[in-house]
Amino acid sequence: MKFVATFKTGALASALLLAVAAGAQAGTGPAEISAHARALQAQAINLDTHLDTPALFSQPGWKISDRHAFKDDGSQIDYPRMVEGGLDGGFWVIYTGQGARDEAGNLKARDAGLARLAEIREMVAANAGTFELATTADDAARIKAAGKKSVYISMENAYPLEHDPSLLSFYYRQGLRMISLAHIGHNDFADSAGMGVAPEGEHGGLSEKGRALVAQANRLGIVLDQSHASNAVFDQMLELSRAPIILSHSGAYDVFAHSRNIDDARIRALAKKGGVIQVNSLGGYLIDTGATPEYRAERRKVYASFGDRHELTAEEREQAKAKLAELDAKYGIRKADFDDYMRHLLHIIEVAGWEHVGLGADWDGGGGVDGYEDITALPKVVQALLDAGYDDRQVSAILGGNTVRLIREVQALADPEAVKAALE
């Protein structure tokens, strides 16, 4: 059995560390799911706005139609587990890690983005009985009613467009309906929030190229995603965009001060303009794990000892887990759990209002905490929201209704002539 992880920075680490923590009881969420919670979820549209699972599509022998197990291969999403967890679909990510910003790097990123786009579309075509491409707000309910899972397409990091930003029209024609401008490093479009402490900006937020991309996304009715970009980008994007924006997988800075999280003042500004924040479940963004630079250096040595590969045999995976467990004990590393995740979610609902919150767990991209290891645990969130006092209408909105509303509003503000030209 191979260990599967995405190519996103830290995803292999997160999966292994989470596997080490599996089995602990404290903070793992509701022990039982009520009949009411299950009925509510079955009626609601359940969407997650950040699924990194496309990174697994090219892994030898890995199929979306097969049931996998997190403890066996580290994956968190597949069709059988979506059915069990009640996930109706979401935004499947074209992710490209930030590399060199020269001609060769930009061409490599262009090709990587197009290859990932093709893999997503090929997955849908190969599983036409269970998945369907979604491009409009109404598609979510229609596809659910047909007994299938929806595949909206998003792009995390606009790096594949640096060589030729006009490719956005091609991506739109192929189904792209959400885009974020940057990842963990600055690029030609925007400044990044970095990974812990925000780095010094390069553009002071959006570059002119980034402003042009924001305008073109508005014209096409593509949802603008601010996750991973700097606070200055948030402020400027919120001001420039004619349509409401989304944070597809972010947390609360006022709960844990990490540069990838967003502060309460900005959450309120997002809600005031009709936007939605989808709450991330990546442990390092939820709590201070106690990971020092020395710990991170030793952890890198563990990965280097296995050749820094993204696939490990079952034996190698157990060896890596044991070494990481020893390292965690040495440094007293804390693992985030379900309660930590709910602390962010409930805080954000309180600040933004339930009409402006959703779920974007970062599955298969480093997300998941103890007690919320894969999509089969989604009913725990439903139960926890009900236990916190939210009613059926509010919970349904958080599960996916707010996302559908946002897509509809963004598309209603698109330029019909621009959309027509992109589709020709």
From TrEMBL:
A GO term, aspect molecular function: metallodipeptidase activity
GO biological processes: proteolysis
Pfam families the UniProt entry points to: Peptidase_M19
Range of residues in the leader sequence: 1-26
InterPro entries in the record: Metal_Hydrolase, Pept_M19
Transmembrane stretches, start-end: none
Keywords from the named record: Signal
PANTHER family (UniProt xref): DIPEPTIDASE (PTHR10443:SF12), MICROSOMAL DIPEPTIDASE (PTHR10443)
Protein name: Peptidase M19
Organism expressing this protein natively: Stenotrophomonas daejeonensis
